[in-house]
Design a protein that fits this description.
The chain has 160 residues and is mainly alpha-helical. The chain is 39% helix and 5% strand.
């Protein structure tokens, strides 16, 4: 066997003692997240978007909002390779996102189970019983199917 070079050395900048090569794994993840971004763009229509929408429909009625609650650990094994890879890349990217909520309706449609946006003791909430009962979005729990049901919500100390 020949000499081995650590991956970090291969991708490190030359001034740091590396070879300044492209990180193929990071590049692949970036392209997969870009695919998710195209899916989230409501103006784009493609056959692959319909396929992904069908896969997401198995995880609740939230449509594209289901992406905020899914992780590769809780999807079935029958997802096609490209979509599974996109979901794995999205799972790495998602903790760095914050929802852009402009009104109560946006917030009420966000899934709260297994979501990085709604934490209990620093961890995402997981409940098979709530998922089976169809209580997956904040609106489902607050009542009224997203209207808030008399619950007062605050975001950054401002009433929504």
């Amino acid at each position: 066997m020949g000499n081995m070079i650590a991956r970090r050395t291969l991708i490190a900048k030359k001034r740091e003692g590396g070879l300044d090569l492209i990180d193929i794994g990071a590049k692949r993840d970036a392209l997969r997240v870009k695919l998710i971004g195209r899916f989230l763009d409501e103006k784009r229509q493609h056959p692959w978007k319909d396929a992904l929408t069908g896969l997401l429909a198995d995880y609740g009625e939230g449509g594209l909002y289901n992406l905020y609650a899914l992780s590769p650990r809780n999807v079935s094994g029958d997802w096609p390779g490209l979509f599974r890879e996109a979901l794995e890349a999205w799972d790495k990217f998602l903790p760095h996102l914050r929802p852009d909520v402009h009104h109560k309706g946006h917030l009420m449609r966000l899934p709260f189970l297994n979501s990085p946006f709604f934490l209990h003791n620093g961890r995402p909430m997981v409940s098979k019983a709530l998922r089976v009962a169809g209580l997956t979005t904040l609106g489902d729990v607050c009542g009224g199917g997203g209207s808030g049901g008399g619950v007062v919500l605050y975001l950054n100390k401002q009433k929504l």
